Amino acid sequence: MNATILLAVILCGIAALWLAQTLLLICAREPWCVGPLRHRSEKPLVRWGMKLALQGVLLGVLFGYPATISEHPLDYHRSRLHPANWGLFAGILLSAFLCLCPMFALNVLVGWVKFTPPRNPAKAMKRVARCLVTALPLAFVEEAVFRGVLLNSLLLTMTGRSGMVAAIVLSSAIFASVHFFRPQKRLLLPAFGLFGLGVILGSAYLIGGSSYWLPVAIHAGGVVFIQVLRPFVEYKGPPWLVGYSSYPICGLFGVTSMALYLGGLAYAINAGMIA
Asked: Helix 213-229 vs helix 188-207: angle between axes, to the nearest 10 degrees?
């Protein structure tokens, strides 16, 4: 029942997003008969309007789903934010960032990743500064939607150990697929990497006791790692190993690094080293 309600909420959100896109494209005098998020318009009205519409839809899912299952939306999400431990959160975020550094250093040493000066240093620094500000709220919103709402709903429908595995796999596939609503230059490897990341974040959600803190910290640490380095590096190695500058986690090294990190974190929590 919960999964059916969630599906209805998501479909309403997609319909609302499509309607907003159509109206914006018409106002901008652009071709409007395209699928949701499949437009190629770069006009500011469409670009910024769609960003606002997308945020509105995400908030609609975050607050609409709990309301439809007769739970107060704030209480629903607040229960997944307690207890809060900001010191531990900062430590996990930093360790998630650092766990990707050995892979990156190895790629630099063998020449698969090279540092290159940005064409526009001022623009590159603005991008880095923006990432440092937006990484945390972005991670909180995405984890609340994909783990707190989507995965949690599937777990209530798919019971038992096999159901838990199926719920993580399905939610990870959906998490990966939504990143390709907008046309992408590459598909296969980024999809593999995002699916692997979804499995890691879903597992972190459960390891942390159905709490947002663990997956949000890992997610934010990964976003900061990618976006801070992206303007200054060029990926020249085999993509299936090292990934791309925009998706270094899609390579085997990136997925393995995050999986090993999660395994170590799970061990530390089970051993009582992290509380």
From this structure: 150
